[in-house]
Design a protein that fits this description.
Layout lengths: L1 H21 L12 H27 L5 H22 L6 H20 L3 H8 L5 H29 L5 H26 L3 H26 L11 H27 L8 H6 L3
Length: 274
Protein backbone atom coordinates (compact mmCIF):
# COMPACT_ATOMS: atom_id res chain seq x y z
CA UNK A 1 0.00 0.00 0.00
CA UNK A 2 2.84 2.38 0.76
CA UNK A 3 4.63 1.53 -2.46
CA UNK A 4 1.45 1.86 -4.50
CA UNK A 5 0.64 5.22 -2.89
CA UNK A 6 4.15 6.53 -3.51
CA UNK A 7 3.75 5.50 -7.17
CA UNK A 8 0.47 7.44 -7.28
CA UNK A 9 2.13 10.47 -5.67
CA UNK A 10 4.96 10.40 -8.21
CA UNK A 11 2.55 10.11 -11.14
CA UNK A 12 0.38 12.93 -9.79
CA UNK A 13 3.43 15.16 -9.43
CA UNK A 14 4.58 14.38 -12.97
CA UNK A 15 1.12 14.72 -14.57
CA UNK A 16 0.23 17.97 -12.82
CA UNK A 17 3.61 19.54 -13.50
CA UNK A 18 3.37 18.53 -17.16
CA UNK A 19 -0.13 20.00 -17.28
CA UNK A 20 1.09 23.35 -15.95
CA UNK A 21 4.04 23.41 -18.32
CA UNK A 22 2.38 22.14 -21.50
CA UNK A 23 -1.38 22.31 -20.94
CA UNK A 24 -1.73 25.71 -22.58
CA UNK A 25 0.35 24.66 -25.57
CA UNK A 26 -1.99 21.86 -26.60
CA UNK A 27 -1.59 19.03 -24.10
CA UNK A 28 -5.16 19.21 -22.81
CA UNK A 29 -6.83 19.88 -26.16
CA UNK A 30 -9.87 21.50 -24.57
CA UNK A 31 -11.78 24.67 -25.32
CA UNK A 32 -9.77 27.75 -24.33
CA UNK A 33 -12.53 28.78 -21.92
CA UNK A 34 -12.03 25.53 -19.98
CA UNK A 35 -8.24 25.55 -19.95
CA UNK A 36 -7.91 27.62 -16.73
CA UNK A 37 -10.03 25.04 -14.90
CA UNK A 38 -7.61 22.25 -15.81
CA UNK A 39 -4.59 24.37 -14.93
CA UNK A 40 -6.20 25.39 -11.65
CA UNK A 41 -6.81 21.76 -10.82
CA UNK A 42 -3.15 21.01 -11.54
CA UNK A 43 -2.18 23.62 -8.96
CA UNK A 44 -4.59 22.13 -6.42
CA UNK A 45 -3.17 18.66 -7.04
CA UNK A 46 0.31 19.88 -6.18
CA UNK A 47 -0.51 22.11 -3.21
CA UNK A 48 -3.48 20.19 -1.74
CA UNK A 49 -3.80 16.65 -3.13
CA UNK A 50 -0.16 15.58 -2.78
CA UNK A 51 0.32 16.98 0.76
CA UNK A 52 -2.90 15.30 1.88
CA UNK A 53 -1.80 11.93 0.51
CA UNK A 54 1.75 12.06 1.84
CA UNK A 55 0.64 13.53 5.15
CA UNK A 56 -1.96 10.81 5.71
CA UNK A 57 0.62 8.15 4.90
CA UNK A 58 2.96 9.72 7.46
CA UNK A 59 0.25 9.75 10.11
CA UNK A 60 -0.47 6.09 9.46
CA UNK A 61 3.18 5.16 9.70
CA UNK A 62 3.36 6.89 13.10
CA UNK A 63 0.33 4.93 14.31
CA UNK A 64 -2.19 7.80 14.38
CA UNK A 65 -5.78 6.64 14.79
CA UNK A 66 -7.07 8.76 11.89
CA UNK A 67 -4.13 7.95 9.62
CA UNK A 68 -5.80 5.15 7.61
CA UNK A 69 -9.20 6.92 7.27
CA UNK A 70 -7.52 10.09 5.99
CA UNK A 71 -5.24 8.03 3.73
CA UNK A 72 -8.35 6.41 2.27
CA UNK A 73 -9.87 9.87 1.74
CA UNK A 74 -6.78 11.25 0.03
CA UNK A 75 -6.72 8.30 -2.38
CA UNK A 76 -10.44 8.72 -3.03
CA UNK A 77 -9.77 12.38 -3.89
CA UNK A 78 -7.14 11.27 -6.41
CA UNK A 79 -9.49 8.68 -7.94
CA UNK A 80 -12.22 11.23 -8.57
CA UNK A 81 -9.85 13.96 -9.67
CA UNK A 82 -7.99 11.98 -12.30
CA UNK A 83 -11.09 10.21 -13.55
CA UNK A 84 -12.22 13.72 -14.44
CA UNK A 85 -8.97 14.28 -16.38
CA UNK A 86 -9.47 10.99 -18.21
CA UNK A 87 -13.08 11.80 -19.16
CA UNK A 88 -13.04 15.61 -19.35
CA UNK A 89 -10.12 16.09 -21.71
CA UNK A 90 -9.44 14.48 -25.05
CA UNK A 91 -6.95 11.63 -25.24
CA UNK A 92 -3.44 13.03 -24.87
CA UNK A 93 0.09 11.95 -23.97
CA UNK A 94 -0.89 11.58 -20.30
CA UNK A 95 -4.00 9.47 -20.85
CA UNK A 96 -2.34 6.19 -19.81
CA UNK A 97 -0.86 7.79 -16.65
CA UNK A 98 -4.34 9.13 -15.83
CA UNK A 99 -5.81 5.63 -16.06
CA UNK A 100 -2.93 4.22 -14.02
CA UNK A 101 -3.42 6.83 -11.30
CA UNK A 102 -7.16 6.10 -11.08
CA UNK A 103 -6.75 2.33 -11.04
CA UNK A 104 -3.91 2.11 -8.52
CA UNK A 105 -5.53 4.70 -6.25
CA UNK A 106 -8.89 2.92 -6.26
CA UNK A 107 -7.52 -0.50 -5.36
CA UNK A 108 -5.13 0.94 -2.78
CA UNK A 109 -7.96 2.88 -1.13
CA UNK A 110 -9.94 -0.36 -0.75
CA UNK A 111 -6.87 -2.10 0.68
CA UNK A 112 -6.27 0.69 3.20
CA UNK A 113 -9.89 0.63 4.41
CA UNK A 114 -9.76 -3.16 4.75
CA UNK A 115 -6.44 -3.22 6.63
CA UNK A 116 -7.59 -1.71 9.92
CA UNK A 117 -9.79 -3.10 12.66
CA UNK A 118 -12.93 -1.07 12.11
CA UNK A 119 -14.50 -2.29 15.35
CA UNK A 120 -11.64 -0.83 17.38
CA UNK A 121 -11.88 2.52 15.57
CA UNK A 122 -15.60 2.59 16.31
CA UNK A 123 -14.96 1.74 19.97
CA UNK A 124 -12.52 4.63 20.30
CA UNK A 125 -14.60 7.22 18.46
CA UNK A 126 -18.19 6.29 19.25
CA UNK A 127 -20.07 8.89 21.26
CA UNK A 128 -17.08 11.23 20.92
CA UNK A 129 -18.04 12.32 17.40
CA UNK A 130 -21.42 13.61 16.12
CA UNK A 131 -22.33 10.36 14.37
CA UNK A 132 -25.86 11.30 13.38
CA UNK A 133 -24.92 14.85 12.33
CA UNK A 134 -21.99 13.65 10.23
CA UNK A 135 -23.89 10.76 8.67
CA UNK A 136 -26.85 13.02 8.00
CA UNK A 137 -24.62 15.62 6.38
CA UNK A 138 -23.10 13.06 4.01
CA UNK A 139 -26.52 11.65 3.13
CA UNK A 140 -27.99 15.13 2.62
CA UNK A 141 -25.16 16.29 0.34
CA UNK A 142 -25.36 13.08 -1.71
CA UNK A 143 -29.14 13.25 -1.97
CA UNK A 144 -29.10 16.92 -2.98
CA UNK A 145 -26.68 16.44 -5.85
CA UNK A 146 -28.27 13.18 -6.97
CA UNK A 147 -31.54 15.08 -7.32
CA UNK A 148 -29.92 18.05 -9.08
CA UNK A 149 -27.90 16.00 -11.56
CA UNK A 150 -30.79 13.61 -12.23
CA UNK A 151 -33.05 16.57 -13.00
CA UNK A 152 -30.42 17.97 -15.35
CA UNK A 153 -30.09 14.65 -17.15
CA UNK A 154 -33.85 14.25 -17.56
CA UNK A 155 -34.16 17.82 -18.83
CA UNK A 156 -31.33 17.36 -21.33
CA UNK A 157 -32.74 14.06 -22.55
CA UNK A 158 -36.25 15.48 -22.88
CA UNK A 159 -35.08 18.49 -24.85
CA UNK A 160 -32.64 16.50 -26.95
CA UNK A 161 -29.72 18.61 -25.72
CA UNK A 162 -26.12 17.41 -25.58
CA UNK A 163 -24.28 18.64 -22.47
CA UNK A 164 -20.67 19.76 -22.78
CA UNK A 165 -17.81 17.38 -22.07
CA UNK A 166 -17.20 18.78 -18.59
CA UNK A 167 -20.85 18.57 -17.53
CA UNK A 168 -21.10 15.08 -18.99
CA UNK A 169 -18.02 14.04 -17.00
CA UNK A 170 -19.32 15.57 -13.76
CA UNK A 171 -22.67 13.83 -14.09
CA UNK A 172 -20.97 10.52 -14.84
CA UNK A 173 -18.39 10.65 -12.05
CA UNK A 174 -20.69 12.06 -9.40
CA UNK A 175 -23.48 9.58 -9.99
CA UNK A 176 -21.21 6.53 -10.25
CA UNK A 177 -18.36 7.28 -7.79
CA UNK A 178 -18.68 10.34 -5.59
CA UNK A 179 -22.31 10.48 -4.53
CA UNK A 180 -22.90 6.74 -3.94
CA UNK A 181 -19.81 6.71 -1.69
CA UNK A 182 -21.05 9.69 0.32
CA UNK A 183 -24.53 8.19 0.58
CA UNK A 184 -23.33 4.76 1.69
CA UNK A 185 -20.74 6.16 4.09
CA UNK A 186 -23.33 8.46 5.64
CA UNK A 187 -25.84 5.65 6.12
CA UNK A 188 -23.20 3.40 7.69
CA UNK A 189 -22.14 6.08 10.15
CA UNK A 190 -25.74 7.07 10.93
CA UNK A 191 -26.47 3.45 11.84
CA UNK A 192 -23.31 3.17 13.93
CA UNK A 193 -21.66 0.55 11.73
CA UNK A 194 -17.92 0.06 12.21
CA UNK A 195 -17.03 0.66 8.57
CA UNK A 196 -18.76 4.03 8.75
CA UNK A 197 -16.21 5.24 11.32
CA UNK A 198 -13.40 4.23 8.96
CA UNK A 199 -14.65 5.79 5.73
CA UNK A 200 -16.52 8.86 7.02
CA UNK A 201 -13.42 10.96 7.92
CA UNK A 202 -11.91 10.20 4.52
CA UNK A 203 -15.12 11.04 2.69
CA UNK A 204 -15.31 14.33 4.58
CA UNK A 205 -11.71 15.07 3.63
CA UNK A 206 -12.34 14.32 -0.03
CA UNK A 207 -15.55 16.35 -0.08
CA UNK A 208 -13.92 19.34 1.65
CA UNK A 209 -10.89 19.32 -0.65
CA UNK A 210 -13.02 18.95 -3.76
CA UNK A 211 -15.69 21.51 -2.86
CA UNK A 212 -13.30 24.15 -1.54
CA UNK A 213 -10.88 23.59 -4.41
CA UNK A 214 -13.60 23.90 -7.02
CA UNK A 215 -14.91 27.02 -5.29
CA UNK A 216 -11.41 28.52 -5.27
CA UNK A 217 -11.11 27.96 -9.02
CA UNK A 218 -14.51 29.61 -9.53
CA UNK A 219 -13.65 32.58 -7.29
CA UNK A 220 -10.54 33.16 -9.39
CA UNK A 221 -12.81 33.58 -12.38
CA UNK A 222 -13.08 30.16 -14.00
CA UNK A 223 -16.39 28.37 -14.27
CA UNK A 224 -15.61 24.70 -15.09
CA UNK A 225 -18.59 24.65 -17.43
CA UNK A 226 -17.21 27.60 -19.39
CA UNK A 227 -19.93 30.09 -18.41
CA UNK A 228 -19.85 33.34 -16.47
CA UNK A 229 -18.87 33.06 -12.80
CA UNK A 230 -21.43 34.07 -10.17
CA UNK A 231 -21.64 33.75 -6.39
CA UNK A 232 -23.89 30.77 -6.93
CA UNK A 233 -20.97 28.94 -8.53
CA UNK A 234 -18.74 29.05 -5.47
CA UNK A 235 -20.77 29.96 -2.36
CA UNK A 236 -22.45 26.53 -1.89
CA UNK A 237 -19.08 24.79 -2.19
CA UNK A 238 -17.54 27.09 0.41
CA UNK A 239 -20.39 26.50 2.88
CA UNK A 240 -20.49 22.72 2.42
CA UNK A 241 -16.69 22.47 2.43
CA UNK A 242 -16.49 24.48 5.66
CA UNK A 243 -19.06 22.17 7.29
CA UNK A 244 -17.05 19.13 6.17
CA UNK A 245 -13.88 20.63 7.69
CA UNK A 246 -15.68 21.33 10.96
CA UNK A 247 -16.87 17.72 11.10
CA UNK A 248 -13.34 16.48 10.41
CA UNK A 249 -12.26 18.60 13.36
CA UNK A 250 -14.66 16.66 15.60
CA UNK A 251 -12.98 13.40 14.55
CA UNK A 252 -9.53 14.88 15.25
CA UNK A 253 -10.60 15.96 18.74
CA UNK A 254 -12.17 12.58 19.40
CA UNK A 255 -9.00 10.79 18.31
CA UNK A 256 -6.95 12.99 20.64
CA UNK A 257 -9.30 12.18 23.51
CA UNK A 258 -8.86 8.43 23.00
CA UNK A 259 -5.09 8.19 22.81
CA UNK A 260 -4.90 5.87 25.79
CA UNK A 261 -6.51 3.08 23.75
CA UNK A 262 -4.23 0.62 21.87
CA UNK A 263 -3.19 1.50 18.33
CA UNK A 264 -5.45 0.15 15.60
CA UNK A 265 -3.19 0.44 12.60
CA UNK A 266 -0.07 -1.20 13.93
CA UNK A 267 -0.11 -3.82 11.21
CA UNK A 268 0.03 -1.22 8.45
CA UNK A 269 2.76 0.70 10.24
CA UNK A 270 4.96 -2.34 10.83
CA UNK A 271 4.55 -3.58 7.28
CA UNK A 272 5.83 -0.32 5.84
CA UNK A 273 9.07 -0.47 3.93
CA UNK A 274 11.85 1.18 6.03
Amino acid sequence: MYVASLLVAALVAIASTAGLLFGASGLYRVDRALLPAFLGQDVLNLVVGLPLLLGAMGLTRRGALLGPPLWFGALFYVVYDYAFYALGARVNALFIPYLLIVTVSAYTAVAVAASVDATVIRARLRRLVPERATGGFLVAVASLFIALWSAGIVTAATRGEAPGMVVHSVWTLDLTIQLPALLLGGVLLWRGRALGFVVAPGLLLQAAAYLLGLSAISILGTDPTGGAVTAGDWAPGVVLGAIALALIGSFVRAASASRRAPRVNARIATEATP
